[in-house]
Specification:
The chain is an alpha+beta fold. It is built from 4 helices and 4 strands. A hairpin with a 5-residue loop joins β2 and β3.
Length: 101
């Protein structure tokens, strides 16, 4: 599968804000910079805010849950305690043809 490197699994990272949006907003620019870095380093595949805006979702690729956790701990949202994370690991067995190269 071309979407992820050999030896990696995909993870659904479900972010839940644990504070008001007013407390999240001051960290948003740093969070976006963190996301950009994670895309540049091949850690993240997709991401975006939930609707309604109660958090966000990230689809990540990593060799292990421990490797992903080391990436997630760098997220300013985690560092400032504005979000909690639920992580589900899965090994893709099928994908849409448009995502294959």
């Amino acid at each position: 599968m071309s979407l992820i490197a050999d030896g990696q699994n995909l993870f659904v990272v479900d972010l839940h804000y644990v504070v008001s949006l007013d407390e999240v907003e001051p960290h948003l620019d740093d969070h976006v910079a963190y996301l950009e870095d994670c895309y540049a380093n091949g850690h993240f595949v997709f991401s975006g805010p939930k609707e309604p805006r109660t958090g966000g979702v990230i689809i990540a690729a990593a060799a292990s849950r421990a490797a992903l956790d080391s990436v997630l701990k760098l997220d300013p949202f985690m560092a400032h305690g504005v979000a909690k994370y639920t992580v589900t690991e899965f090994r893709p067995s099928m994908m849409a043809a448009a995502l294959q190269s």
